[in-house]
Amino acid sequence: MAGSRAELNNYRVSARKARLLVDQVRGRQVEEALSLLALSSRRFSRPLEKLLRSAIANAEEKNNRQQAGIDVDNLYVSKITVDESRSMWRIRARAQGRANWIQKRTSNVTVELEER
Asked: How far apart are CA 98 and CA 86, in angstroms?
């Protein structure tokens, strides 16, 4: 099976912070990953949970369309990556008329599920 995938592009979280959560989910069964994300207190856990559910729905749709015989209960997170996306640049006022540039980072997240 080729697997199903879902992408989240230009989400407003730095890749470094997102990778902390993604590393815990990689290689796990889908149900285990969803329960782990539901209990996490990190801000990025809800969007990642939603992305994982989207990948599951894509697998179900692929199963219905192709009659592939995919068992959704046997799906696991085979590959999940977080890459840096474009950054928004902002200016913060500082003392004595100076200014500093602030970088608001965004990330692209890709989830691939496969059947065990």
From this structure: 25
- Cβ distance 22 to 77 under 8 Å? no
- Structural domains of the chain, ranges and CATH numbers in brackets: 4-115 (3.90.470.10)
Task: Point out which residues pair with 4 in neighbouring strands.
Answer: 113
Q: Which residue has the tokens 């928004």?
A: 88
Per the document, the length of the chain is 116
Q: What's the distance, CA 67 to chain centroid? A: 27
Enumerate the β-bridge partners of residue 101: 91
Pairwise CA distance, residues 9 & 33, whole Å? 21
pLDDT tens-place string over residues 40-71 = 999 999 999 999 999 999 998 888 887 767 77
Please tell me the pTM assigned to this model: 0.89
Alpha-carbon separation of residue 97 from 69, 91, 100, 101 (angstroms): 66, 12, 10, 14
